[in-house]
């Protein structure tokens, strides 16, 4: 699951922090549905977060994704 997420279906004005959590959660749940591998699902969620936050440091992604997934699951 190293493909980039296509945001063309989401209106630009709605790409907010709240939507980032939806995108991250969807990446995680989709990866779990297909692979049943939690590590790969978390990696997919981190990739989704980093795509939405390209200027963030690499160490920021994991805690941010953990917060999002803990709130959603």
Give an overview of the whole structure:
With about 70 residues, this protein is mainly α. It has one domain. It has three helices and no strands.
Number of strands: 0
Question: How many individual helices?
Answer: 3
- The H/E string reads HHH
Helix content: 55-70%
Strand content: under 5%
What do the pLDDT scores average to? Answer: 82
CA(first)-CA(last) distance: 21 Å
Structural class: mainly alpha
Multimer state: single chain
Poorly predicted ranges: none
Task: Give the gist of this structure.
This protein is 67% helix and 0% strand.
Task: Write the SSE topology.
Layout: H1 17-35, H2 38-52, H3 58-72
Helix pairs in contact: 1-2, 1-3, 2-3
Entry keywords:
73 residues, single chain, mainly alpha, 3 helices, globular
């Amino acid at each position: 699951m190293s493909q980039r997420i296509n945001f063309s279906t989401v209106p630009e004005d709605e790409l907010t922090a709240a939507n980032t959590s939806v995108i991250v959660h969807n990446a995680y749940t989709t990866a779990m549905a297909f692979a049943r591998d939690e590590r790969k699902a978390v990696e997919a969620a981190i990739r989704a977060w980093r795509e939405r936050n390209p200027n963030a440091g690499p160490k920021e992604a994991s805690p941010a994704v953990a917060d999002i997934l803990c709130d959603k699951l």
